[in-house]
Amino acid sequence: MAETITIDGPLTWRDIAAVAEGTRLSLSEPARRRISDARRIVDALVKRGVRGYGINTGVGALCDVVIGREDQQALSRNIIMSHACGVGETLARIEARAVMAAQIANFAHGYSGVRLETVEALLALLNADIIPLVPSRGSVGYLTHAAAIGLVLIGHGSAMNGTEKLGGAEALTRIGLKPLRLEAKEGLSLVNGTPCATGLASLALARTERLFGWADAAAAMTYENLGSQANAFAEGPLALRRSPGLEAVGRTLRTWLAESPMLAETAGARTQDPLSLRAVPQVHGAARDAFDQIAEIVNRELSSVTDNPAVSGSPGAPEVHSQAHAVGAALGLAMDSLAVVAAEVAAISERRVDRLVNPLVSSLPAFLAGDSGVSSGFMIAQYTAAALVAENRRLAAPASLDGGITSALQEDILTHATPAAWKALSILDNLERILAIELLASAQAYDLQPQSRGRAARTDALYGRIRGAISTYADDRPMNEDFERMRALMRGMPP
């Protein structure tokens, strides 16, 4: 990971995810010029009295109320205050950093008109890792999340510096700044656009990509324990179906299972294996294909101007454009799709867990318990996985279709992009837990195999890493503690 990412052209979702994880962010000189040039255009619009939404008018249904120059600073400040309506638990540090990075990237396009010092203050907070506390709920699009960040810039709200909670003014003092006095348009720009959704979407993509690797690893371990069909993932037959994702998963599975003594011993015992085993390339591969399409949409959003209004032209001929670029329909649809993708990968993982623990379909001890009857083994772990799959099914309902009407019919269609990204992240949390259960169940199944059956080199190495951190389960401790250990292991290393 680079120590610093410099904004010159558009950032990608990988850039945003890297900054969220702690990489520093900086502005190139061309980006600084773009920001400053756009500000001069806003100043010209104000001086000439050209009507511009949120510059010299009210917002929402108050868009036709003209605001005099003497009240435009108050308008910007009041927008931050009145829009800070978020409730509930706050975003995690990494999530808030992702939103801040996406905000800065949006301003750096040079069509928003915020002052360079405002962007630099936001950047300084980010790089000092002094992160505003952003309530996670209460947004139909973007306003409340972004307002919580804007509060800190004007000396209100709260921020975290490590484990220390700071008031907004104190947070600014830590980076050598005083609370900002916002100028015309800045209040609106600070709460506007799709950075909340693009930031969270970038994180969701990063987590999905990581978990896809673990899903393939878990499937390989389960297949080795239960599979019997010869060459189930052979390259030639898989290539009959056209799918880059399928081909990639097939290659991965062949690598994981290369020269497996266990599979050599059981090959051909069944004509074909159940779908949760033999359809892994088709299901995981389709998920990867969808992921690539979703990632392209998020990158397009990051390369787009999503402020409203946008400004262009020059100080001599300033232009202001009231478009609907802040509406995140594309992101809402994309994150709804990602939610379904993650839920599908979780669902097939749970089915594989059931096949590992179910004595009706495996030759392993019931529920992977060494002393069946006295010990329940992984019986209830499968219940937990099933419950999380059911929760995913509920969460996967499309947020983008929720609709709603706000601001006295002025905003009479809502696409819920930020909530869509938030629930995708919730599904990914459940996917991680389900995969942790499958990995532990597969390791337990290896423990119960006849000693003569050897594992493939790569699955054996992963089994060794798991057992190096988590011992065989014997009903001797709360099982959910093992789940958390496995999740920590998954986050700390690639499969």
What would you note in describing this structure?
By secondary structure, this protein is mainly alpha-helical. It has two domains: 189 residues, Orthogonal Bundle (Fumarase C, Chain B, domain 1), CATH 1.10.275.10; 292 residues, Fumarase/aspartase (Central domain) (Fumarase C, Chain A, domain 2, Up-down Bundle). 56% of the residues lie in helices and 7% in strands. It contains 19 helices and nine strands. The strands form four sheets. It has a three-stranded antiparallel sheet. Strands 1-2 form a two-stranded parallel sheet. Strands 3-5 form a two-stranded antiparallel sheet. Strand 1, helix 1 and strand 2 form a beta-alpha-beta unit. Helix 4 crosses helix 9 and helix 9 packs parallel to helix 17. The longest helix has 32 residues. The radius of gyration is 26 Å and the shape is elongated.
Topology, pairings included?
Layout: E1 4-7, H1 13-21, E2 24-27, H2 29-48, H3 72-83, E3 87-90, H4 93-107, H5 116-127, E4 130-132, E5 135-137, H6 143-153, E6 158-161, E7 164-167, H7 168-174, H8 186-191, H9 195-226, H10 235-238, H11 244-256, H12 261-266, H13 275-278, H14 280-302, E8 310-314, E9 317-321, H15 329-357, H16 379-395, H17 417-448, H18 457-469, H19 479-492
Helix content: 55-70%
Largest sheet: 3 strands, antiparallel
Number of helices: 19
What is Rg? 26 Å
CATH fold-level name of the largest domain = Fumarase C, Chain A, domain 2
Give the overall shape, derived from the CA principal axes.
elongated
Beta-strand content estimate:
5-15%
Order of strands, main sheet, comes to 4-6-7
For the terminal residues, how far apart are their CA atoms? Answer: 19 Å
CATH architecture of the largest domain: Up-down Bundle
Tell how many strands the DSSP assignment holds.
9
Count of domain modules: 2
- From the helix content, strand content and strand pairing, which structural class follows? mainly alpha
Mean pLDDT: 94
- What top-tier CATH class of the largest domain fits best? Mainly Alpha
CATH superfamily of the largest domain: Fumarase/aspartase (Central domain)
